[in-house]
Amino acid sequence: xxxxxxxxxxxxxxxxxxxLAVREVAAGSxxxxxxxxxxxxxxxxxxxxxxxARLDLYLKKTEIGRKIEKRIIRAGVRIKVSTxxxxxSVVSVFSVIFVWRxxxxxxxxxxxxxxxxxFLAYLKRQEERRKEEFIAQLPEVARVLSNAxxxxxxxxxxxxxxxxxxxxxxxxxxxxxxxxxxxxxxFDSAMAELRDRMPSREIGVLVSTLLxxxxxGGALVTSLRNISGTLEERKETHxxxxxxxxxxxxxxxxxxxxxxxxxxxVNLINPGVIRTxxxxxxxxxxxxxxxxxxxxxxxxxxxxxxxxx
Length: 309
Fold this sequence. Notes:
Layout: H1 3-34, H2 40-48, H3 51-61, H4 63-75, H5 81-102, H6 105-150, H7 155-165, H8 170-182, H9 187-197, H10 201-216, H11 220-269, H12 273-278, H13 281-305
Helix pairs in contact: 1-5, 3-4, 4-6, 5-6, 6-7, 6-11, 7-8, 8-9, 9-10, 10-11, 11-13
GO cellular component, one term: plasma membrane
Organism: Murinocardiopsis flavida
InterPro entries: T2SS_GspF_dom, T2SS_GspF_sf
């Protein structure tokens, strides 16, 4: 296999992607300057006609594009699906070239998996952080809805009012619910989408209470006030558990980076040893066992430090 030609081809593809990304950034700056002189309709039409917009629309029609878009929305990250995948591709190509030349070709290929894991882990972390922030706001959400309904407002109107009063992320999520209701979506469907975007037991309890109240009525104000107190207690409990487990979580991340860094450390102490080991059957067995044990350690630590709440 002609490795120099493969590396040159990968470098050329990376440069093309970088040029496209720079062009997109420049186009974004130009669009901001054009907002003062162009109408909103023309601006939307021009954006939808751009190559990145068409690529983004195409990706959203695919299964993987829809899944990534859903995760981006959950994470609250302001980035397009196309931009996210292009960044992942560029970083993957650079990692393949670097690891291929530094360690061995097989690890260069495996680095693609690591890059994908890091990007998706970032989204997962942002999802969890945003969900935790939303859960922390739930007592306030329940109080605002309780006050609004006790004042005689209908439940959809109370949700709309709460979306204006609450900070992010609760304000943004309730705003999505209010917008869905304004375009004719049913209350049950809008709340089901909220529960799907923010899956947790606390949110499920609040959503179930609102759904029951919208269908059959009942003492909604009293229920919301009781839920508010219960959610406040759960928030304090979750905060204590998170504080206790913070050290173990840091250990899990440290173990992940140490596992990867150990390969570079061994290669630094004895240059070329990893490439030599991958060239022999015995070395491949040793590397496979070592990587399997490191992966098992990372998975076990993460399983131990993960708490369902």
